[in-house]
Amino acid sequence: MQHNQEANENIFVSDLRTIVSAARDTSYRMANLMQVIQNWLIGRRIVEQEQQGNVRAGYGKHIVELASQSLTEEFGQGFSETQIRNFRKFYLTFRDLQIQQTMPAEFRSRLAVIQQTVPAESAANGISLPVQLSWSHYERLIRVLDPKARIWYMREASAQQWDYRTLKRNIDSQYYYRLAQTPEPQKQEVIDEMHRLTADYEREESTFVKNPMLVEFLGLVG
Predict the structure, then answer these.
(1) Predicted confidence band at 65 (pLDDT cuts at 50, 70, 90)?
(2) Which of 107, 142, 165, 170 is the most exposed place for a label (fewest CB within 10 A)?
């Protein structure tokens, strides 16, 4: 009788842990996704505004300053001029990302009230937005100058679920080019080496509290 009760309670505790873990993981991924969508849209709106005032010298600098000041006053940290320029660069680098199809319906409906419109997306020309990647991933990706390498790193990071540090290490070590230049029979050795050198990163699961950029995004900074 006692054995059955213990087994039943073990199942109960396991179910509770699964519920909380699944909820937190989903919340984390959704917050990551919304931060990426937000930053892409801000970048696009800045570019759009610059184009409206392109006859004025220094207008782009003014727009960055205005965006940074107004967003910081309203929402706090996370909108420095450096970050705003990164948002702009993110949009210009990844303007073909299929953003609209990943937006929750409620968010998309709220965008209807602003002047900026999100264009219809073509599946043939667009790049699917990898929902697994965080803003930290994209901040590193926009510094990759080679477009082919950049897209490869983006897709590989998504498919292999690379931690940001794994992505950074692989970009810094020219992993894409090393694989491309390695004869087919030896490629697995390069892949195995990469996994060995990044194993510690991948064992540390990303959590909400470990990501200060996500805490900033959600306005939880004191």
Answers:
(1) very high
(2) 107
187-207: b or e for each residue (b if 16 or more CB lie within 10 Å)?
Answer: eeeeeeebeeebeebeeeebe
HSE of 34 in the Cβ direction (CA atoms, 13 Å)? 16
Concatenated DSSP letters for 40-67?
HHHHHHHHHHHHHTTTSTTHHHHHHHHH
Backbone torsion region of residue 174, taken as left when φ is above 0, otherwise alpha when ψ lies between -120 and 50, otherwise beta? left
pLDDT at 182 over 70: yes
Beta-bridge partner residues of 97: 127
Confidence class of residue 196 from pLDDT cuts 50, 70 and 90? confident
Of 190, 147, 202, 143, which Cα lies nearest the Cα of 171?
Answer: 143
Q: What does the alpha-carbon distance between residue 211 and residue 193 come to, in Å, rounded to a whole number?
A: 27
Q: Is 38 exposed, middle or buried (0-12, 13-18, 19+ CB in 10 A)?
A: middle
User: Chain-centre distance of CA 6, in angstroms?
Assistant: 43
* Residue among 3, 203, 37 nearest 108 (CA): 37
Instruction: State the Cα–Cα distance between residues 108 and 112, nearest whole angstrom.
Output: 7
